Amino acid sequence: MCQLLGMNANTPTDVMFSFTGLATRADEHKDGFGIAFFEDKGLRLFVDPASAIDSPVADMVRRYPIKSGNVIAHIRKATQGHVALENCHPFVRELWGRYWVFAHNGDLKDFYPRLHGAFRPVGSTDSERAFCWLMQELAKAHASVPNVGELSTTLRELLPLLRAHGSFNMLLSNGQALWAHGATQLHWLQRQHPFRPATLADEDLSVDFAALTSPADRVAVVATQPLTTGEAWQAIAPGELKVFVDGAPRG
Amino acid sequence: MCQLLGMNANTPTDVMFSFTGLATRADEHKDGFGIAFFEDKGLRLFVDPASAIDSPVADMVRRYPIKSGNVIAHIRKATQGHVALENCHPFVRELWGRYWVFAHNGDLKDFYPRLHGAFRPVGSTDSERAFCWLMQELAKAHASVPNVGELSTTLRELLPLLRAHGSFNMLLSNGQALWAHGATQLHWLQRQHPFRPATLADEDLSVDFAALTSPADRVAVVATQPLTTGEAWQAIAPGELKVFVDGAPRG
Q: What is this structure's pTM?
Protein backbone atom coordinates (compact mmCIF):
# COMPACT_ATOMS: atom_id res chain seq x y z
CA MET A 1 0.00 0.00 0.00
CA CYS A 2 1.39 3.36 -0.99
CA GLN A 3 1.21 6.23 1.45
CA LEU A 4 0.23 9.77 0.63
CA LEU A 5 0.93 12.86 2.69
CA GLY A 6 -0.04 16.44 1.89
CA MET A 7 0.33 19.75 3.67
CA ASN A 8 -1.25 23.14 2.99
CA ALA A 9 -0.45 26.13 5.19
CA ASN A 10 -1.26 29.83 5.30
CA THR A 11 2.38 30.70 6.01
CA PRO A 12 5.46 29.01 4.55
CA THR A 13 6.03 26.46 7.24
CA ASP A 14 9.12 24.57 8.38
CA VAL A 15 8.26 20.99 7.66
CA MET A 16 10.46 18.11 8.66
CA PHE A 17 9.57 14.60 7.67
CA SER A 18 10.36 11.49 9.58
CA PHE A 19 10.69 8.10 7.98
CA THR A 20 11.77 6.41 11.19
CA GLY A 21 9.52 3.40 11.03
CA LEU A 22 10.20 2.79 7.38
CA ALA A 23 13.76 1.99 8.24
CA THR A 24 12.69 -1.10 10.13
CA ARG A 25 10.08 -2.36 7.73
CA ALA A 26 11.30 -1.02 4.46
CA ASP A 27 10.20 -4.13 2.60
CA GLU A 28 6.66 -2.77 2.73
CA HIS A 29 7.53 0.45 0.92
CA LYS A 30 10.76 -0.43 -0.75
CA ASP A 31 9.91 0.91 -4.19
CA GLY A 32 10.83 4.54 -3.81
CA PHE A 33 9.53 7.75 -2.41
CA GLY A 34 9.18 11.36 -3.39
CA ILE A 35 8.44 14.74 -1.85
CA ALA A 36 7.59 18.01 -3.57
CA PHE A 37 7.76 21.38 -1.81
CA PHE A 38 6.32 24.55 -3.29
CA GLU A 39 8.02 27.79 -2.38
CA ASP A 40 5.65 30.34 -3.89
CA LYS A 41 5.64 29.35 -7.61
CA GLY A 42 8.97 27.54 -7.34
CA LEU A 43 9.23 23.84 -6.67
CA ARG A 44 11.67 21.42 -5.10
CA LEU A 45 11.14 17.81 -6.03
CA PHE A 46 13.05 14.99 -4.38
CA VAL A 47 12.44 11.50 -5.75
CA ASP A 48 14.34 8.29 -5.26
CA PRO A 49 13.61 4.73 -6.37
CA ALA A 50 15.68 3.53 -3.40
CA SER A 51 14.03 2.65 -0.13
CA ALA A 52 13.85 5.46 2.40
CA ILE A 53 16.17 3.32 4.56
CA ASP A 54 19.11 3.65 2.15
CA SER A 55 18.49 6.90 0.34
CA PRO A 56 20.81 9.87 0.92
CA VAL A 57 17.96 11.97 -0.47
CA ALA A 58 15.62 10.75 2.28
CA ASP A 59 18.35 11.43 4.80
CA MET A 60 18.65 15.02 3.60
CA VAL A 61 14.88 15.56 3.65
CA ARG A 62 14.78 14.25 7.24
CA ARG A 63 17.34 16.82 8.39
CA TYR A 64 16.48 19.84 6.23
CA PRO A 65 13.73 22.20 7.44
CA ILE A 66 12.20 23.41 4.18
CA LYS A 67 9.73 26.28 4.42
CA SER A 68 6.77 25.53 2.22
CA GLY A 69 3.11 26.41 1.79
CA ASN A 70 2.20 23.24 -0.10
CA VAL A 71 3.81 19.81 0.21
CA ILE A 72 2.97 16.48 -1.41
CA ALA A 73 4.80 13.28 -0.42
CA HIS A 74 4.47 9.69 -1.56
CA ILE A 75 5.95 6.40 -0.41
CA ARG A 76 5.67 3.84 -3.17
CA LYS A 77 4.73 0.18 -3.19
CA ALA A 78 4.76 -0.70 -6.89
CA THR A 79 1.56 -2.10 -8.35
CA GLN A 80 1.95 -0.99 -11.98
CA GLY A 81 5.21 0.07 -13.61
CA HIS A 82 8.61 -1.31 -12.64
CA VAL A 83 10.81 0.22 -9.95
CA ALA A 84 12.58 3.09 -11.65
CA LEU A 85 13.22 6.78 -11.13
CA GLU A 86 10.72 7.76 -13.85
CA ASN A 87 7.94 5.88 -12.01
CA CYS A 88 8.40 7.66 -8.66
CA HIS A 89 5.64 9.99 -7.49
CA PRO A 90 5.00 12.88 -7.23
CA PHE A 91 4.91 13.74 -10.93
CA VAL A 92 5.30 17.31 -12.17
CA ARG A 93 4.13 19.16 -15.26
CA GLU A 94 3.87 22.84 -16.17
CA LEU A 95 0.56 24.34 -17.26
CA TRP A 96 -0.30 28.04 -17.66
CA GLY A 97 3.08 29.04 -16.21
CA ARG A 98 2.51 27.06 -12.99
CA TYR A 99 4.00 23.78 -11.86
CA TRP A 100 1.46 21.07 -11.03
CA VAL A 101 2.33 18.24 -8.67
CA PHE A 102 0.41 14.98 -8.49
CA ALA A 103 0.59 11.80 -6.38
CA HIS A 104 -1.75 8.82 -6.47
CA ASN A 105 -2.50 5.86 -4.26
CA GLY A 106 -4.60 3.16 -5.83
CA ASP A 107 -4.88 1.08 -8.94
CA LEU A 108 -6.60 1.99 -12.22
CA LYS A 109 -7.48 -1.05 -14.32
CA ASP A 110 -7.08 -0.94 -18.10
CA PHE A 111 -6.70 2.81 -18.08
CA TYR A 112 -5.14 3.95 -21.36
CA PRO A 113 -6.76 7.31 -22.07
CA ARG A 114 -6.40 9.07 -25.42
CA LEU A 115 -3.56 11.52 -24.85
CA HIS A 116 -3.75 13.92 -27.78
CA GLY A 117 -2.58 17.02 -25.91
CA ALA A 118 0.74 18.32 -24.68
CA PHE A 119 1.15 15.87 -21.77
CA ARG A 120 2.67 12.42 -22.21
CA PRO A 121 3.84 9.96 -19.58
CA VAL A 122 7.60 9.42 -19.27
CA GLY A 123 7.27 6.29 -17.14
CA SER A 124 4.89 3.32 -17.27
CA THR A 125 2.47 3.81 -14.37
CA ASP A 126 -1.31 4.12 -14.48
CA SER A 127 -0.83 7.09 -12.14
CA GLU A 128 1.23 9.17 -14.57
CA ARG A 129 -1.23 8.36 -17.38
CA ALA A 130 -4.05 9.63 -15.16
CA PHE A 131 -2.10 12.79 -14.35
CA CYS A 132 -1.36 13.50 -18.03
CA TRP A 133 -5.04 13.01 -18.86
CA LEU A 134 -6.09 15.36 -16.03
CA MET A 135 -3.65 18.05 -17.23
CA GLN A 136 -4.84 17.65 -20.81
CA GLU A 137 -8.49 18.04 -19.79
CA LEU A 138 -7.74 21.02 -17.52
CA ALA A 139 -5.87 22.67 -20.40
CA LYS A 140 -8.90 22.17 -22.65
CA ALA A 141 -11.33 23.50 -20.05
CA HIS A 142 -9.60 26.81 -19.36
CA ALA A 143 -7.62 29.21 -21.54
CA SER A 144 -5.40 30.43 -18.72
CA VAL A 145 -4.99 29.69 -15.04
CA PRO A 146 -8.46 29.93 -13.45
CA ASN A 147 -9.11 30.62 -9.80
CA VAL A 148 -9.22 27.84 -7.22
CA GLY A 149 -13.02 27.66 -7.24
CA GLU A 150 -13.22 27.24 -11.01
CA LEU A 151 -10.46 24.64 -10.96
CA SER A 152 -12.29 22.71 -8.26
CA THR A 153 -15.49 22.72 -10.32
CA THR A 154 -13.63 21.34 -13.34
CA LEU A 155 -11.88 18.71 -11.22
CA ARG A 156 -15.24 17.59 -9.78
CA GLU A 157 -16.39 16.94 -13.36
CA LEU A 158 -13.22 15.06 -14.34
CA LEU A 159 -12.44 12.94 -11.30
CA PRO A 160 -15.48 10.62 -11.52
CA LEU A 161 -14.21 9.58 -14.96
CA LEU A 162 -10.96 8.40 -13.36
CA ARG A 163 -12.69 6.84 -10.38
CA ALA A 164 -14.70 4.67 -12.76
CA HIS A 165 -11.44 2.83 -13.58
CA GLY A 166 -10.48 1.92 -10.03
CA SER A 167 -9.15 3.20 -6.76
CA PHE A 168 -8.06 6.82 -6.99
CA ASN A 169 -6.82 8.48 -3.80
CA MET A 170 -5.09 11.58 -5.10
CA LEU A 171 -3.21 14.69 -4.04
CA LEU A 172 -2.77 17.61 -6.45
CA SER A 173 -1.30 21.08 -5.99
CA ASN A 174 -0.28 24.05 -8.11
CA GLY A 175 1.17 25.96 -5.15
CA GLN A 176 -2.08 27.89 -4.60
CA ALA A 177 -4.21 25.08 -3.18
CA LEU A 178 -4.08 21.41 -2.25
CA TRP A 179 -6.74 19.15 -3.75
CA ALA A 180 -7.37 15.79 -2.07
CA HIS A 181 -9.62 13.20 -3.68
CA GLY A 182 -10.72 10.26 -1.55
CA ALA A 183 -11.40 6.72 -2.75
CA THR A 184 -10.50 3.98 -0.30
CA GLN A 185 -8.62 5.82 2.43
CA LEU A 186 -7.57 9.40 2.95
CA HIS A 187 -7.80 11.51 6.10
CA TRP A 188 -7.32 15.14 6.95
CA LEU A 189 -6.73 17.33 9.96
CA GLN A 190 -6.49 21.03 10.62
CA ARG A 191 -4.04 22.40 13.13
CA GLN A 192 -4.19 25.90 14.56
CA HIS A 193 -2.65 27.86 17.39
CA PRO A 194 -2.11 26.75 20.13
CA PHE A 195 -0.32 23.76 18.68
CA ARG A 196 -0.51 20.91 21.10
CA PRO A 197 1.92 18.04 21.24
CA ALA A 198 0.52 15.08 19.36
CA THR A 199 1.41 11.42 19.73
CA LEU A 200 2.48 9.61 16.62
CA ALA A 201 0.15 6.78 15.72
CA ASP A 202 2.69 5.26 13.39
CA GLU A 203 6.27 6.28 12.99
CA ASP A 204 6.39 5.30 9.32
CA LEU A 205 5.80 8.77 8.10
CA SER A 206 5.33 11.85 10.22
CA VAL A 207 5.60 15.57 9.95
CA ASP A 208 6.85 17.95 12.59
CA PHE A 209 5.32 21.40 12.91
CA ALA A 210 7.27 22.34 16.02
CA ALA A 211 8.51 25.55 14.43
CA LEU A 212 4.94 26.89 14.21
CA THR A 213 4.38 29.42 16.93
CA SER A 214 2.45 32.41 15.61
CA PRO A 215 -1.23 32.56 16.64
CA ALA A 216 -2.21 33.25 13.03
CA ASP A 217 -0.59 30.08 11.68
CA ARG A 218 -2.88 27.46 10.31
CA VAL A 219 -2.07 24.22 8.55
CA ALA A 220 -4.04 21.36 7.02
CA VAL A 221 -2.54 17.88 6.78
CA VAL A 222 -3.84 15.06 4.57
CA ALA A 223 -2.60 11.49 4.98
CA THR A 224 -3.57 7.96 3.98
CA GLN A 225 -3.96 7.05 7.66
CA PRO A 226 -4.16 9.39 10.66
CA LEU A 227 -0.58 10.15 11.69
CA THR A 228 -1.38 10.94 15.31
CA THR A 229 -3.67 9.82 18.09
CA GLY A 230 -5.64 12.34 20.14
CA GLU A 231 -6.36 14.66 17.23
CA ALA A 232 -9.58 15.07 15.25
CA TRP A 233 -8.69 13.35 11.97
CA GLN A 234 -11.59 13.12 9.55
CA ALA A 235 -12.03 10.63 6.75
CA ILE A 236 -12.47 11.92 3.19
CA ALA A 237 -15.42 10.04 1.74
CA PRO A 238 -15.11 7.91 -1.41
CA GLY A 239 -15.55 10.25 -4.37
CA GLU A 240 -15.16 13.40 -2.27
CA LEU A 241 -12.82 16.19 -3.34
CA LYS A 242 -11.52 18.39 -0.53
CA VAL A 243 -9.84 21.69 -1.38
CA PHE A 244 -7.42 23.32 1.04
CA VAL A 245 -6.38 26.95 0.77
CA ASP A 246 -4.34 28.85 3.37
CA GLY A 247 -4.41 25.90 5.75
CA ALA A 248 -8.19 25.49 5.80
CA PRO A 249 -10.76 23.44 3.88
CA ARG A 250 -12.83 25.42 1.43
CA GLY A 251 -16.41 24.91 0.29
CA MET B 1 29.13 35.13 -14.55
CA CYS B 2 27.15 31.94 -14.41
CA GLN B 3 28.90 28.64 -14.80
CA LEU B 4 27.67 25.73 -16.86
CA LEU B 5 28.77 22.12 -16.56
CA GLY B 6 27.57 19.16 -18.60
CA MET B 7 28.46 15.50 -18.74
CA ASN B 8 27.57 12.81 -21.28
CA ALA B 9 28.79 9.23 -20.84
CA ASN B 10 28.37 5.88 -22.56
CA THR B 11 27.81 4.13 -19.22
CA PRO B 12 25.94 5.49 -16.21
CA THR B 13 28.81 7.06 -14.39
CA ASP B 14 29.39 7.92 -10.74
CA VAL B 15 29.69 11.65 -10.74
CA MET B 16 30.60 13.66 -7.70
CA PHE B 17 30.65 17.42 -7.82
CA SER B 18 32.85 19.67 -5.83
CA PHE B 19 31.93 23.21 -4.93
CA THR B 20 34.99 23.72 -2.76
CA GLY B 21 36.10 27.05 -4.11
CA LEU B 22 32.61 28.46 -4.11
CA ALA B 23 32.58 28.27 -0.35
CA THR B 24 35.30 30.86 -0.14
CA ARG B 25 34.04 33.26 -2.78
CA ALA B 26 30.35 32.62 -2.69
CA ASP B 27 29.54 36.26 -3.35
CA GLU B 28 30.38 35.67 -7.01
CA HIS B 29 27.80 32.92 -7.44
CA LYS B 30 25.49 33.57 -4.57
CA ASP B 31 22.23 33.37 -6.48
CA GLY B 32 21.58 29.67 -6.52
CA PHE B 33 22.60 26.53 -8.28
CA GLY B 34 21.04 23.48 -9.79
CA ILE B 35 22.00 20.04 -11.03
CA ALA B 36 19.96 17.59 -13.10
CA PHE B 37 20.87 13.91 -13.45
CA PHE B 38 19.25 11.62 -15.98
CA GLU B 39 18.96 7.97 -15.05
CA ASP B 40 17.68 6.47 -18.30
CA LYS B 41 14.41 8.39 -18.88
CA GLY B 42 14.08 9.34 -15.21
CA LEU B 43 15.38 12.60 -13.81
CA ARG B 44 16.66 13.97 -10.54
CA LEU B 45 16.67 17.73 -10.27
CA PHE B 46 18.25 19.54 -7.36
CA VAL B 47 17.86 23.30 -7.31
CA ASP B 48 18.45 25.82 -4.56
CA PRO B 49 18.34 29.61 -4.56
CA ALA B 50 20.78 29.53 -1.62
CA SER B 51 24.49 29.83 -2.19
CA ALA B 52 26.33 26.53 -2.53
CA ILE B 53 28.14 27.52 0.68
CA ASP B 54 24.99 27.22 2.81
CA SER B 55 22.80 24.80 0.97
CA PRO B 56 22.08 21.37 2.50
CA VAL B 57 21.14 20.33 -1.04
CA ALA B 58 24.62 21.22 -2.31
CA ASP B 59 26.07 19.37 0.63
CA MET B 60 24.15 16.23 -0.31
CA VAL B 61 25.14 16.48 -3.98
CA ARG B 62 28.79 16.78 -2.92
CA ARG B 63 28.64 13.53 -0.95
CA TYR B 64 26.25 11.43 -3.05
CA PRO B 65 27.68 9.45 -5.99
CA ILE B 66 24.82 9.49 -8.48
CA LYS B 67 25.15 7.23 -11.52
CA SER B 68 24.06 9.13 -14.58
CA GLY B 69 24.54 9.17 -18.33
CA ASN B 70 23.68 12.84 -18.77
CA VAL B 71 24.20 15.65 -16.27
CA ILE B 72 23.60 19.39 -16.53
CA ALA B 73 24.66 21.76 -13.75
CA HIS B 74 24.43 25.52 -13.34
CA ILE B 75 25.76 28.00 -10.82
CA ARG B 76 23.79 31.22 -11.02
CA LYS B 77 24.78 34.85 -10.92
CA ALA B 78 21.50 36.66 -11.50
CA THR B 79 21.33 39.04 -14.45
CA GLN B 80 17.61 38.89 -15.22
CA GLY B 81 14.94 37.65 -12.82
CA HIS B 82 15.15 38.03 -9.04
CA VAL B 83 16.71 35.41 -6.77
CA ALA B 84 14.02 32.79 -6.27
CA LEU B 85 13.58 29.05 -6.54
CA GLU B 86 11.56 29.37 -9.75
CA ASN B 87 14.44 31.21 -11.44
CA CYS B 88 17.08 28.54 -10.72
CA HIS B 89 18.49 26.62 -13.67
CA PRO B 90 18.33 23.94 -14.98
CA PHE B 91 14.71 24.14 -16.14
CA VAL B 92 12.70 21.03 -17.01
CA ARG B 93 9.77 20.37 -19.31
CA GLU B 94 8.23 17.18 -20.72
CA LEU B 95 7.84 16.74 -24.49
CA TRP B 96 6.96 13.53 -26.38
CA GLY B 97 7.16 11.50 -23.16
CA ARG B 98 10.73 12.63 -22.43
CA TYR B 99 12.04 15.13 -19.90
CA TRP B 100 14.10 17.98 -21.36
CA VAL B 101 16.64 19.83 -19.25
CA PHE B 102 18.03 23.24 -20.13
CA ALA B 103 20.59 25.63 -18.65
CA HIS B 104 21.78 28.94 -20.06
CA ASN B 105 24.67 31.28 -19.48
CA GLY B 106 24.35 34.68 -21.07
CA ASP B 107 21.95 37.52 -21.48
CA LEU B 108 19.18 37.91 -24.07
CA LYS B 109 18.11 41.51 -24.56
CA ASP B 110 14.44 42.35 -25.07
CA PHE B 111 13.56 38.74 -25.72
CA TYR B 112 9.82 38.24 -25.31
CA PRO B 113 8.91 35.58 -27.88
CA ARG B 114 5.32 34.77 -28.76
CA LEU B 115 4.53 31.72 -26.63
CA HIS B 116 1.36 30.28 -28.09
CA GLY B 117 2.14 26.61 -27.41
CA ALA B 118 2.09 24.38 -24.38
CA PHE B 119 5.19 25.81 -22.68
CA ARG B 120 5.06 28.88 -20.44
CA PRO B 121 7.68 30.25 -18.08
CA VAL B 122 7.03 29.89 -14.35
CA GLY B 123 9.75 32.34 -13.34
CA SER B 124 10.92 35.65 -14.79
CA THR B 125 14.23 34.92 -16.54
CA ASP B 126 15.13 35.42 -20.19
CA SER B 127 16.58 31.89 -20.02
CA GLU B 128 13.28 30.18 -19.20
CA ARG B 129 11.52 32.19 -21.91
CA ALA B 130 14.14 30.99 -24.41
CA PHE B 131 13.70 27.39 -23.23
CA CYS B 132 9.89 27.56 -23.56
CA TRP B 133 10.25 28.99 -27.06
CA LEU B 134 12.73 26.23 -28.04
CA MET B 135 10.37 23.53 -26.75
CA GLN B 136 7.43 25.13 -28.55
CA GLU B 137 9.34 25.22 -31.86
CA LEU B 138 10.64 21.64 -31.44
CA ALA B 139 7.07 20.48 -30.77
CA LYS B 140 5.93 22.18 -33.96
CA ALA B 141 8.79 20.74 -36.03
CA HIS B 142 8.26 17.05 -35.14
CA ALA B 143 5.16 14.99 -34.42
CA SER B 144 6.93 12.62 -32.03
CA VAL B 145 10.42 12.25 -30.63
CA PRO B 146 12.84 12.32 -33.59
CA ASN B 147 16.32 10.81 -33.55
CA VAL B 148 19.31 12.78 -32.31
CA GLY B 149 20.41 13.74 -35.83
CA GLU B 150 17.01 15.17 -36.75
CA LEU B 151 16.82 17.06 -33.46
CA SER B 152 20.27 18.51 -34.04
CA THR B 153 19.24 19.71 -37.50
CA THR B 154 16.16 21.44 -36.08
CA LEU B 155 18.20 22.99 -33.26
CA ARG B 156 20.72 24.34 -35.78
CA GLU B 157 17.83 26.15 -37.50
CA LEU B 158 16.40 27.53 -34.24
CA LEU B 159 19.47 28.54 -32.25
CA PRO B 160 20.58 31.41 -34.53
CA LEU B 161 17.21 33.06 -33.83
CA LEU B 162 18.03 33.06 -30.11
CA ARG B 163 21.63 34.09 -30.66
CA ALA B 164 20.43 37.18 -32.48
CA HIS B 165 19.12 38.46 -29.12
CA GLY B 166 22.35 38.18 -27.18
CA SER B 167 24.77 35.81 -25.54
CA PHE B 168 23.51 32.25 -25.54
CA ASN B 169 25.80 29.57 -24.11
CA MET B 170 23.45 26.65 -23.60
CA LEU B 171 23.28 23.05 -22.44
CA LEU B 172 20.29 20.87 -23.36
CA SER B 173 19.59 17.17 -22.81
CA ASN B 174 16.72 14.73 -23.11
CA GLY B 175 18.67 11.84 -21.61
CA GLN B 176 19.73 10.55 -25.03
CA ALA B 177 22.23 13.25 -25.97
CA LEU B 178 23.81 16.44 -24.66
CA TRP B 179 23.63 19.51 -26.89
CA ALA B 180 26.07 22.35 -26.19
CA HIS B 181 25.74 25.69 -27.96
CA GLY B 182 28.65 28.09 -27.74
CA ALA B 183 28.45 31.87 -27.67
CA THR B 184 31.03 33.63 -25.55
CA GLN B 185 32.68 30.78 -23.66
CA LEU B 186 32.13 27.05 -23.53
CA HIS B 187 34.73 24.26 -23.59
CA TRP B 188 34.64 20.52 -23.94
CA LEU B 189 36.83 17.51 -23.29
CA GLN B 190 36.63 13.80 -23.92
CA ARG B 191 38.01 11.34 -21.42
CA GLN B 192 38.69 7.70 -22.16
CA HIS B 193 40.51 4.79 -20.61
CA PRO B 194 43.16 4.98 -19.22
CA PHE B 195 41.91 7.83 -17.07
CA ARG B 196 44.82 9.93 -15.95
CA PRO B 197 44.89 12.08 -12.86
CA ALA B 198 44.09 15.66 -13.80
CA THR B 199 44.92 18.82 -11.93
CA LEU B 200 42.07 21.13 -11.11
CA ALA B 201 42.46 24.51 -12.75
CA ASP B 202 39.87 26.07 -10.49
CA GLU B 203 38.29 24.48 -7.49
CA ASP B 204 35.03 26.36 -7.92
CA LEU B 205 33.31 23.55 -9.68
CA SER B 206 34.80 20.17 -10.47
CA VAL B 207 33.71 16.69 -11.27
CA ASP B 208 35.37 13.48 -10.15
CA PHE B 209 35.41 10.47 -12.45
CA ALA B 210 37.62 8.38 -10.20
CA ALA B 211 35.11 5.52 -10.23
CA LEU B 212 35.62 5.02 -13.96
CA THR B 213 37.82 2.02 -14.56
CA SER B 214 36.47 -0.04 -17.46
CA PRO B 215 38.43 0.29 -20.74
CA ALA B 216 35.17 0.79 -22.61
CA ASP B 217 34.12 3.81 -20.55
CA ARG B 218 33.99 7.12 -22.31
CA VAL B 219 32.79 10.47 -21.07
CA ALA B 220 32.49 13.97 -22.51
CA VAL B 221 32.56 17.01 -20.23
CA VAL B 222 31.44 20.52 -21.18
CA ALA B 223 32.20 23.52 -18.99
CA THR B 224 32.26 27.29 -19.16
CA GLN B 225 36.01 27.25 -18.46
CA PRO B 226 38.39 24.28 -18.62
CA LEU B 227 38.19 22.55 -15.23
CA THR B 228 41.66 21.03 -15.38
CA THR B 229 45.14 21.81 -16.62
CA GLY B 230 47.11 19.29 -18.68
CA GLU B 231 44.10 18.02 -20.61
CA ALA B 232 43.07 18.81 -24.17
CA TRP B 233 40.09 21.13 -23.61
CA GLN B 234 38.71 22.60 -26.82
CA ALA B 235 36.71 25.79 -27.19
CA ILE B 236 33.24 25.62 -28.74
CA ALA B 237 33.11 28.38 -31.33
CA PRO B 238 30.52 31.18 -31.19
CA GLY B 239 27.38 29.86 -32.90
CA GLU B 240 28.60 26.25 -32.90
CA LEU B 241 26.35 23.44 -31.69
CA LYS B 242 28.16 20.33 -30.42
CA VAL B 243 26.21 17.12 -29.92
CA PHE B 244 27.45 14.44 -27.55
CA VAL B 245 26.16 10.87 -27.60
CA ASP B 246 27.62 7.97 -25.62
CA GLY B 247 30.49 10.11 -24.36
CA ALA B 248 31.70 11.26 -27.78
CA PRO B 249 31.05 14.23 -30.07
CA ARG B 250 28.94 13.46 -33.10
CA GLY B 251 28.97 15.02 -36.57
A: 0.92
